[in-house]
Structures are given as C-alpha cells and as structure tokens.
Amino acid sequence: MAKLLEVNNLKTYxxxxxxxxxxxxxxxWDLDEGETLALVGESGCGKSVTAMSILKLIxxxxxxxxxxxxxxxxxxxxNVSDAEMRSIRGNRIAMIFQEPMTSLNPVxxxxxxxxxxxxxxxxxxxxxADQKAIELLEMVGIPxxxxxxxxxxxxxxxxxxxxxMIAMGLSCxxxxxxxxxxxxxxxxxxQAQILEIMGKLAxxxxxxxxxxxxxxxxxxRYADRVNVMYAGRIVExxxxxxxxxxxxxxxxxxxxQSVPRLDDTEHTRLATIEGQPPLLINEIHGCAxxxxxxxxxxxxxxxxxGTPELAEVxxxxxxxxxxxxxxRDKVPA
Amino acid sequence: MTTQNLAANAxxxxxxxxxxxxxxxxxxxxxxxxxxxxxxxxxxxxxxxxLTFDVKRGETLGLVGESGCGKSTTGRAIxxxxxxxxxxxxxxxxxxxxIKGADLxxxxxxxxxxxxxxxxxxxxxxxxxxxISEPLAIxxxxxxxxxxxxxxxxxxxxGLNPTFAKRYPHEFSGGQRQRIGIGRALAVEPDxxxxxxxxxxxxxxxxxxxxNLLEDLQGEFGLTYLFIAHDxxxxxxxxxxxxxxxxxxxxELAESNELYNNPxxxxxxxxxxxxxxxxxxxxxxxxxxxxxxxxxxxxxPPKGCVFRTRCTKGAGCKCSDTVPVLTEVSxxxxxxxxxxxxxx
Lengths: 333, 344
Description:
The complex is a heterodimer.
Chain A: E1 3-16, E2 19-32, E3 36-40, H1 47-54, E4 63-72, E5 75-76, H2 82-88, E6 93-96, H3 110-122, H4 126-139, H5 145-148, H6 158-170, E7 176-180, H7 188-205, E8 208-213, H8 216-222, E9 225-230, E10 233-239, H9 240-245, H10 250-257, E11 310-314, E12 317-320, H11 323-326
Parallel strand pairs in A: 3-8, 3-9, 6-7, 7-8
Antiparallel strand pairs in A: 1-2, 1-4, 4-5, 9-10, 10-12, 11-12
Chain B: E1 19-34, E2 40-56, E3 60-64, H1 71-78, E4 86-91, E5 94-95, H2 101-108, E6 111-114, H3 128-138, H4 145-157, H5 174-186, E7 192-196, H6 204-221, E8 224-229, H7 232-238, E9 241-246, E10 249-255, H8 258-261, H9 266-274, H10 280-283, E11 326-330, E12 333-336, H11 339-342
Parallel strand pairs in B: 3-8, 3-9, 6-7, 7-8
Antiparallel strand pairs in B: 1-2, 1-4, 4-5, 9-10, 10-12, 11-12
Helix pairs in contact in B: 3-4, 3-5, 5-6
C-alpha cells in the first residue's frame, strides 16, 4: 500500500533556560493509507510532541524541529508555507485531543464549531454547513442532532463531547486522523463506545489513524502496528501481533509485564521496571534504558555511546539494537 | 530495620479474618439548596444510596465503578469525613456515626486514607519530615528522639531514602510522592486504610511499583484495605473480594475470581467486556457489550433498578420498580436482585 506519512529522523527540541530538552530525538517511522498505528509509551516519552510536530503546532520558542523530514502524501510538511499548513490542518490531517472539556470553545454552539471547519475547507454556505453538521452528529450517534447543534459544550456529557470532537475531526474527510489519548479522560464504558465509533468510521472512510495512548489494551484491540517510544526514541516497532506476542526490547517486555490483566487466573506479583524514565534535559548517550536495565549491577552491557539503531529481528519487526536490552528474558508466548 | 510495630494490634479486638468494619444501609445525600438568605433545600444528590457490606481484618475489598458512582463518597463516609445521612458504620465494635470530637479522633488514628492525586494531596510548603510527623504530633505518638527514628523507619518501609526527609514534595516524582502519602497514612499505625484511586494518576511502570508496595505493607503489617479504583484490572489484581458500584448502589459483590469468571449483573458484564486485554490474539475476537448512553444524574436517579435507563435489553427491559437488594446467588456472591439485569 502507498505510504501516506513518512517521518524521517525527526528531532524536536525545546530550548529552555535550564537547557535543551530533547523531547523527540531522531524517530523514523511511516504510516500506510488506511492503517491504524499506535504510539505507546509513558508520560514524557515524546508521543504527543511527535504528533504536534506533524501538525507543526510546536510552540516556537521554546520548541523547534531541529532535524528530519516529514512527508505527507508526497508533500514535504516542514517546507510548506504557514498558509498552506493551515489548509492542511483540520482538512487533510485532523486531530482529536485528550481533554474533551477544554478542546471545545465554551462560548460557541456545537453547530458553530463544526461549521467553522467545513465552511473554511470545503467552501460550503451556511445552510449546507448546517446540514453537514447535522449529518456528522448523526454519524457519531448523537440523538436529536437537529436540536443539539444549537447547544453549547457544557450541555453535553464528556462522552458526547468526545463524539463531537470525532465528528469535527472527520468533517472534511481527512486522510489522517491523529487521536491523542482520545479516551484517557473518559470512563471505561464510554471509552468503549468512543473507540468503537472511531474505529468503525475510520475504516468506513478509509482514514489512517495515528492513535497515541499509554493503554496497552487499546493498542491490542485497535492498532495494526505499534511504535513503542521511550525517552524520545522508538525502541520497538512492528505489527501489534509481533510486538505483543514476541516483545524483544527490555522496556517493551517490562511494560507488558507490569500491567495486571483481566484474564490473569492466578495472583502473581507484578513485575516492575525499577526507577523512572530519564530526564530529557540531560543528553543521553547510548541506550536510554540503561539506568533501568533489569541487568543493572548484574552485568548490564547496554551501549554507552551513540544511539542504538533499529534492527530488523523478523520481517517488519524492528528493535533498537542494544545487545543487552535485546537478550533479556522473554515473556513466554 | 528496627523492631517497631506498624499496626497497633494490641488495641484491635477483631482477629484476622473476623469482621473489622461493617457498613449497614449507609446513605450519603448532599443537599442542593436554593435562595439567597433562606437556603431552602430543593433536592438531594444521592451519592450513596443504601450500602451494606463487611470488611474482614487483613483483607482487601475492592470497590469499582465509573466516575460519579459514589466510590469515593463511600470511603469518606466510612471515615466520617462526611457524616452519613443514614445508616450504620461499625468499626471494630464501635458505632462511628454516634461518636464525635476526641472519641472520634482516637479512631481516626486507626483509619487512614491514601489519596488519588499525589500532587495536590501533599502540602508544598512542608518537608517530607513535617508531612509524616504531623499526624504523629496530632495523636501524641513517638515523642522526642523516637519521632526521628520513627520517621526513618517509615521512609524505609515505603522505599524512600531517609536522607530525603528534608526535601519538599516538588523535588519528587509522582511515584515517590505517592510513597510519601502512603508513609503519612502508615505513620500512626492504622488498622484500616481507604486507598482512593492510589495509582490512577501514575504511569504504568510506576503503578506496578506502588501496587507491589501496598501488597508488601499489607503482608508485613496486617493492614486492611478498602481499595477504590475505576480500573478493573488493578482491582482484580489487588483485592480478595470485589464489589461493583453503579449510581450509589452496589450491584454485585463476589469473592476471588468469581466476579470475573461468572459475572451475573448486566452492568458488571458490560463493564468487564469494555476493558481491552493487552493481547491482540484474544482482543480481536472478543465480543463487546457496548452500553448506550451515560450514567443518569444522581440528583434524579431512576426509580427501582438504577440500571434501567441503560439496560442492555432496550425495549424489552423489565427492570424492577422496587429497589433491588443484594441477594446471595452462590456462596459469597451477591447480586442486586433485579430479574431483568440478572437474566443472561
């Protein structure tokens, strides 16, 4: 399938008074048309900054994309004008944010907010835009859409607001939808509703989805491929099946073992990853996972120089080739 | 480690395995008032509406539910941080709803709480030493040089370096702060701890560390937990018995894996099916029950079975008009006896 998005050696740094924060430090990945890719990792690993870099929404100063290329549908995003970027945002690349409470404007009606994008990008007139807004709300399962477009965000529940966000995201039939922790702020039964709707609509419309999450269960259910991020770098990437059933990197293995599962039959002690992720304000030499390596003190031989490159361990399954992290005890398949 | 004892077991009359806390028909309503001068009561928010359950000494009772179902209110009402509107809360033979002032304060030492947000639950102007010593000062425990010894002991017990005592909360990460909060609760030798979403604000790898710590401390000091969380996988992992709350009511309560293997109530089944399992092989083929709509407002809850507005039967719903009561369906497995919700 054709590549929709190619990110090559992307580096996004934040230049602060205390020093340079290397939030995203050389990530390379791509996304096919119609595919769902998950970016997984803990807070501060650079997932959201990666997404913001694609949309060129990094606040500058202090942030800047210092290196790399982003190619979307044959277009070099880092070299397009601001005006051109505005015509892409919300149109060909749409984004759904984590917090449905703060990402809608409280003083505009839901209808006005949906109309804004379709009038701007699709050139519809008021009446057509209203009709489109009603259609979109019906599509995401909001009852009495004709009445509800006149309502304000505070009259909607959290789940309903996230549906509105999805409707807005899909309003211009984007090729790529970026969902940044779309369900983290919602309750589990509402989470399930929202993810089902998003997954169904994306596959109907053929939209590629980049889903950012820390919930491994969500990844297992919805993603075709997974990028595991740690300290601004990708440590493992592959199809969801490969990464979950045959994790290679020490961090991925640790992450999988540290979540209690609903289908565990016996009570076993959770495996933990000792320590915390490194502060990105200090430059990391060699393997970023070294301070938390399970072999610490017991013959850890993580690389201390350069950045481990991604190496292919099986077709389509790449791991940062730190020899130490790759030879840890594997989870039984 | 020194030979200090964390739990004041001498005072506790309940033996391990016996009932330590017994809650009977507890209701917690918050009045909604209107008017500028004459604050007339116009309605009640029925946050908790008739709960009955026991907690045995040394066990962990899990309480799961979605936001607004009354889990946290339950924890607070047990500790008498909110005075229950109605019902009984019996802790180790004493009726807590009937005592106040100094008598109640004595019990406060034995019942502690760990909060969800490690950022807002620690005073930023107090050092770790002050945070952990304050409850000791209030209850007049470990005076003089013993207090410093106690502090070091507590810090070590929760996995922090005693040299951190002079630092302030902002110098710690989320996981370490949660350890400070746990230390503060442990300092006064409690029997019973309400853990209110203690790991929801933490990253997964840090969550596992805190869960393991809570389990270790329970084993070491014979603590009893009421573990409140919205994450069913975490509750399943840590609890001996689990209960599911919906709109101020317990809809199902069961021992060990019974709740997960044989869920009876429609809400429990929907809740379980909504949790994705981190394994694509299982997850891609799993059937999901997607609930329609949202949780109704506790200001105006549905009459009778509270689940009726989201009943999976839709038009064919025959949820009861009388308030369902918990009924034992098999040993130790209780379900709100709404016939419609119980039918598979």
